[in-house]
Design a protein that fits this description.
Radius of gyration: 17 Å
Shape: globular
CATH class: Alpha Beta
Number of strands: 5
CATH topology: Nucleotidyltransferase, domain 5
Helix content: 40-55%
Strand order of the largest sheet: 3-2-1-4-5
């Protein structure tokens, strides 16, 4: 729609597209966490330049240690000082606040990123619909109608958030062989990267690019 096009076209470059994956252990694994608390262990970032060029960044901590410090450090290094940070629904805001609570010395920088968040979900919901979405505006319902070449069903092993949690738990288990761990790492990186690639496709379509 014209409103979505105007909203998005006003935003500067570079543009960042951010997605987190989280784990929620029933029995807390790390000091300072609660039962079933969503703890980020991975992020994916697509960075879009003014000319449409894309750079992909990612961080996945499979050490088995509390992952928030390494995720926060890497994210602050990856996201520059200006430009919108796109998310799809408010989950990424919650994840940034979790990182900030876990790493108080990094809270100011993480709050600055949070202040730049732009949620694509309400923009899409107010301006786009396709019958194949069957009433759902989830990124997985939206994507096949915009960019069918980005196919979650083609991903090997990790194709949804539950599978990502299961892959993470297996990957950090000490009994998991190194070769299997690397296979799980590749699957997790591909899945989370698909989420941010999907956001790029959605934003470009809504802007009419």
């Amino acid at each position: 729609s014209g409103e979505a096009r105007r909203t998005l076209s006003r935003l500067p470059y570079p543009r960042y597209y951010l997605d987190f994956e989280t784990i929620n252990f029933a029995v807390p694994r790390w000091r300072g966490t609660r039962p079933y608390q969503q703890v980020p262990f991975q992020w994916s970032l697509h960075i879009e330049g003014r000319g449409g060029e894309l750079e992909s960044r990612a961080h996945l901590d499979l050490s088995g240690d509390h992952p928030t410090r390494s995720l926060a450090d890497a994210l602050l290094d990856a996201i520059g000082p200006v430009g919108p940070v796109f998310m799809y629904t408010s989950f990424e805001r919650t994840c940034l606040r979790t990182l900030a609570a876990s790493c108080p010395d990094l809270a100011t920088g993480l709050a600055a990123i949070e202040a730049r968040l732009v949620d694509l979900h309400p923009i899409a919901k107010s301006s786009y619909y396709h019958p194949d979405m069957h009433g759902s505006w989830s990124i997985k319902a939206l994507l096949p109608t915009i960019a069918p070449e980005l196919d979650y069903t083609a991903l090997d092993g990790v194709a949804d958030g539950v599978a990502a949690q299961q892959a993470y738990m297996e990957a950090i288990a000490t009994a998991t062989p190194a070769e299997r761990r690397e296979h799980l790492r590749a699957g997790l990186l591909a899945y989370c990267g698909m989420d941010t690639a999907a956001m790029v496709a959605v934003a470009r379509d809504l802007q009419g690019a």
